[in-house]
Design goal:
- It is built from five helices and seven strands, in the order ααβββαβββαβα.
- The chain is α+β, with helices and mostly antiparallel strands.
- It has one domain (25-205).
- Strands 1-2-3-7-6-5-4 form a seven-stranded antiparallel sheet.
- A hairpin with a 5-residue loop joins β5 (157-164) and β6.
- It starts with a helix and ends with a helix.
Length: 208
């Protein structure tokens, strides 16, 4: 009985502390109720989706395949985030058949504004990072700081923490500190971003 008890405790420990149980946890997380794997049609109708995707169609022109995915902002008052956008794979429609999961969300990004308050943004980022570390203690974590590719001056900085799961999916926390003239000229906002994304979207965004 003593050996059985030890074996049982060991099994429970491995079950709840093994990195393998974290491989696809992104599907259990949401950003103000919006999750990867949801249909965008749950949050807006198709006409509105098409209108919104046209507003962002040039935002990723610096990528090798800029039209592979579409970004849509969901414009409503959310409890936590000031802005939420989602990405889905752009698929050609056909009058003879429908495409399954036409508007399946493959990345969701929430932003809390910290205009000219980079210290406040970093504080929020560290707060959320510590929560994720406690939830996913065995998940690979990478810290990074780099100049944003959109700003040719190189003075706009991004501080990033990326949690990478065995599946290749990830969670990214970011604070953007735009060069102020560049931000105001482009009417950009800045602040803390919480991003949940699938491996394929991550690879797309990295291909420029």
């Amino acid at each position: 009985m003593h050996k059985f008890f030890i074996k049982s405790v060991s099994t429970i420990y491995l079950l709840f502390n093994s990195p393998f149980i974290y491989s696809d946890q992104i599907y259990d997380l949401s950003v103000d109720g919006i999750s990867v794997g949801d249909s965008l049609l749950e949050f807006m109708n198709e006409k509105k989706i098409i209108e919104e995707q046209d507003k962002t169609k040039t935002h990723y022109s610096y990528l090798v395949d800029p039209l592979k995915y579409s970004e849509v902002y969901i414009r409503k008052d959310f409890p936590v985030y000031d802005l939420i956008s989602v990405f889905y794979k752009r698929k050609n429609k056909n009058k003879y058949f429908t495409i399954k999961n036409q508007y399946e969300i493959e990345m969701v990004r929430g932003q809390i504004s910290f205009i000219e308050d980079f210290d406040g943004c970093l504080k929020k980022k560290n707060e959320v990072k510590n929560e994720l570390i406690s939830m996913f203690p065995f998940t690979q974590k990478k810290e990074d700081s780099f100049s944003h590719s959109l700003d040719p001056t190189g003075r706009s900085i991004v501080h990033s923490t990326k949690f990478s799961f065995d599946s290749g999916n990830s969670i990214v926390l970011q604070c953007n500190d735009w060069e102020e003239y560049f931000r105001s000229e482009n009417k950009f906002t800045e602040g803390f971003k919480f991003v949940i994304l699938k491996k394929e979207v991550d690879e797309w965004l990295s291909n420029y």
